[in-house]
Amino acid sequence: MAYINLLPWREEAEKAKQRAFFTALTAVALSAFAVVFIVNQFYQMRVDGQNDRNQFLKNEIQVLDLRIAKIKSLNEKKKELEKRISVVEQLQRSRNVGTKVLDEIAKIVPTGIYLIRLEKQDNSLKITGKSESNNHLANMIREIERSALFDDAVLESITSNDARSKLLSDFKMRIRIKGLTNSSAAQGAS
Predict the structure, then answer these.
(1) Distance separating alpha carbons of residues 154 and 175, to the nearest angstrom
(2) Sorting pLDDT into bands at 50, 70 and 90, what band is 180?
(3) Is residue 187 scored above 50 in pLDDT?
(4) CA distance 127 to 124
(5) Distance between CA 139 and CA 110 in Å, rounded?
(6) Which residues pair with 126 in a beta bridge?
(7) Tens digit of pLDDT for each residue in 45-61?
């Protein structure tokens, strides 16, 4: 008699194929998941590394900003000190101006000119006086222009009063003192 296999061999073969397929599918899915996870971790490490570098740069920028602010404040202090030094130097240069002015006035005032009032305003000198003649005033202006201390003599007015003496006329003159700055600028810097 012939031997007949009555077991459902086709169904068993198909189940075996299905198991092999699902096993392969699971292996591919696990491999794909592992690859995606590894790629994700790689890029996440790169992003974290870049974030760390960015944070380091931000911290260094803050340190440098503080240094820049300190340098700016030091530069402002330096400018203030330079202004004060220039004021002190100017005061040192103009320390004996009063005596020099009076000495120079004595040299430039010719006979026939009588000074009534000297008034210093900033770097100019206002002179009020009397003159016997306009020639004496012209000589005085020439001497002022030759002077090393005075400059820019401006005769503001000459008036003669008939009620008083006919020989004397009143005059007002303004002279600039060379090498002096305005005292208000010197006070503003200090």
Answers:
(1) 6
(2) low
(3) no
(4) 10
(5) 7
(6) 119, 174
(7) 999 999 999 999 999 99
Q: Report the distance separating Cα 17 and Cα 24, nearest Å.
A: 10
What distances in angstroms separate CA 9 from CA 6, 17, 113, 116, 168, one per listed residue? 8, 12, 148, 144, 153
pLDDT at 93 over 90: no
In the structure encoding, which two tokens stand for residue 23, read together?
Answer: 């096993």
pTM, two decimals, is: 0.49
Up-side HSE of residue 79: CA atoms within 13 Å toward CB? Answer: 5
Amino acid at 188: G
Phi/psi-derived region of residue 160, left when phi > 0, alpha when psi is between -120 and 50, beta in every other case? beta
Dihedral sign of CA atoms 18, 21, 27, 33 in order: negative
| For the ranges 101-110, 162-171, 180-189, the one whose mean pLDDT is highest | 101-110
Write the CB contacts of 33 (distance below 8 Å, at least 6 apart in sequence): none
d(CA 65, CA 71): 10
Q: Which of 104, 113, 106, 97 is nearest to 173 (CA)?
A: 113
The token duo for 177 is: 């003192």
Q: Round to whole Å and give the CA distance between 41 and 44.
A: 5
pLDDT of residue 160: 80
Higher confidence at residue 74 or residue 180? 74
Looking at the chain, how many residues does it have? 190
